[in-house]
Design brief:
This protein has 258 residues and is mainly alpha-helical. Helix content is 65%, strand content 5%. It starts with 6 loop residues before the first strand and ends with a helix.
Length: 258
């Protein structure tokens, strides 16, 4: 086996499933599928390079390469010699992210999802502040550097962003709550990607993340929950604005056709 290919014991992100033995390559393939299922990666997008993905996901390049080969064999990725790997024209939105699919989460009202995130996520990240270990803090600091190096590319930022959030959720010590909050995180990710494409949006989120990591490093529960509350309010405000803009465009288009 290549480096990073040892079997690992992890929990399957499906209700009613028991522990399943998979390799690191399988887990990275699943992560890439989740990025596609939640519209962080869209058909035709170029997948970031192996080195970049390996840095973000904390595995070897050989592991990433093996995951890409798996997905190419299933026609989820298009791999061509001498060019970037691209996302195939495929719809994975029916796949469960952890407990449910992104389609299921997106069926809820924006205000309901925001209220749920405030109610549950702040509890989860508060618990994470008290339970987080040095290895996870170091991973978050590495992800901050990956954020910085990603520049203004919204897709690359969101790949890092998901790893950042999920790493914190997992640190709470309750895998069911972590999975539930991860599903809430995926809400309307297509709007989130549009929001992060706006000037200054990535810088604002990066500053939020720096504040969150500083509070986690101190194991300061109150500071972590305050930083996350501000971050969630920013996500809610920008998503609501984009949803309203989309509604206005649809309404205007309908009036023109009458």
């Amino acid at each position: 086996m290549a480096m990073g290919e040892r079997p690992v014991l992890v929990e399957m992100p499906k209700v009613g499933k028991s522990l399943d033995r998979r390799t690191a390559r399988d887990i990275i393939a699943e992560k890439i599928m989740v990025l596609i299922a939640t519209n962080m990666l869209r058909p035709g997008d170029e997948l970031p390079g192996e080195r970049e993905l390996a840095n973000v996901m904390h595995v070897s390049r050989e592991t990433v390469r093996g995951a890409i080969q798996q997905l190419a064999a299933r026609n989820i990725l298009d791999v061509a010699q001498g060019s970037r790997t691209r996302i195939s024209n495929i719809d994975l939105s029916h796949l469960p992210v952890t407990i449910v699919s992104s389609n299921a989460i997106n069926s809820y009202d924006l205000d309901a999802v925001h209220a749920a995130r405030l109610h549950v996520e702040l509890k989860v990240v508060g618990d994470a502040a008290e339970a987080i270990d040095e290895e996870t803090v170091a991973k978050l600091e590495d992800l901050l550097e990956a954020h910085r190096l990603g520049g203004d590319d919204a897709m690359r930022f969101l790949i890092c962003d998901r790893e950042f959030h999920v790493s914190i959720y997992r640190a709470c010590g309750n895998p069911l709550l972590a999975d539930f909050v991860t599903d809430l995180y995926t809400y309307m990710m297509d709007f989130r990607r549009s929001a992060m494409s706006r000037p200054g949006a990535i810088d604002a989120s990066y500053r939020d993340h720096v504040e969150i990591v500083e509070a986690l490093r101190r194991r300061d529960r109150e500071a972590v929950t305050q930083a996350f509350r501000k971050h969630l309010q920013r996500i809610y405000a920008t998503t609501r604005e984009l949803v309203a803009d989309a509604g206005s465009r649809m309404k205007g288009s309908g009036q023109e056709q009458q």
